[in-house]
Amino acid sequence: MKTTDEIIQTYLDDLKSALAGADKATVQDALADAEEHLRTALESERTEQEGLEESAALEGIIQSYGDAQEIAQAYQSWESSIPSALAATPAARRTISSANGKSYPGFFGVYADPRAWGGLVYMLISLATGIIYFTWAVTGISVSLGVMVLIIGIPVSILFLLSFRGIAFLEGRLVEALLGERMPRRASFTDSNLGWKERLKQLLTGKSTWLSSIYMILMLPLGIIYFTVMVVLISVSLALIISPVLAYGFNIPVGTFIDGDVVRQLPNYFTPLISILGVGLATGTMHVARWVGKVHGKFAKALLVSD
């Protein structure tokens, strides 16, 4: 006869197979919900009944919860009915191409795309989050290795590894909110009945633990690049846009170049063209933010979502 762990694992495998082709984040949420429900319900049955036939009780719990096919269909139905993150605003919907219902036509249509604004915000805050993630990951790995030989080494290591998964979950929520990439809405389930040896083994052998730490470390160089590029582009764009105000309102020379000992200045009628150039650069910056957000969202999903 199968043990309860084997029955639960079989059900989870069937559920994963039934969700084949679904979004990875949806699969992770479904598996986490199912395992938590089954184990929590079984633990409740153990508490209420002495001498419980656990296998039979678990079969009854699964029957009341629903078979794998039913649960898979329910999750797929929920996914299709829930609005996606960064749903189109009224202004965006007015500019959506009727050809496919998703694209934003025209060079300036990017301003109506919430993903462009989300990417812009994400790139600006990525330096701060990158520093926090990198510092915590390096500190956690260093401290865990340093105290591993002591009595407190194992619980400290467990806490740090659990924190990596927790930070990965929070980063996933940030990625979905700002970049629109579907990420897990439920943290991976951890059985509280496991002993510290089993829990440590699960953390050490879990691919998601180490991929999360790699992501946290990589976020520092990525955050520096994102922040620097975005600040430079925004600063130059704004400087070009306000050039007519500086030229006509404050008599500040605009378009001045030094060629050796000769100072050259563009004619005044070029000043509005410089401002137009700034608008074009600002719009290009929004396109860059949207593209980076899309690419980073895929990158985050690859490292932070379990298979």
Walk me through the structure.
This protein has 307 residues and is mostly helical. The chain folds into two domains: 1-81, no CATH class; 87-307, no CATH class. The protein has eleven helices and two strands. The protein has a two-stranded antiparallel ribbon. Strand 1 (256-259) and strand 2 form a beta hairpin. Helix 1 (4-18) packs across helix 4 (68-81) and helix 9 (207-241) packs antiparallel against helix 11 (271-304). The radius of gyration is 27 Å and the shape is elongated.
Q: Which sequence of SSEs, written as H and E, runs from N to C?
A: HHHHHHHHHHEEH
Beta-strand fraction estimate: under 5%
Q: Could you say which structural class the secondary elements and strand pairing correspond to?
A: mainly alpha
Please state the average pLDDT score. Answer: 81
* Helix percentage: over 70%
Number of separate structural domains: 2
Number of strands: 2
| Radius of gyration, CA atoms, in whole angstroms | 27 Å
Largest sheet strand order = 1-2
Oligomer: single chain
User: How many helices does DSSP assign?
Assistant: 11
> How far is the N terminus from the C terminus?
29 Å
Uncertain spans: 96-100
Q: Based on CA inertia axes, which overall geometry fits?
A: elongated
Largest sheet: 2 strands, antiparallel
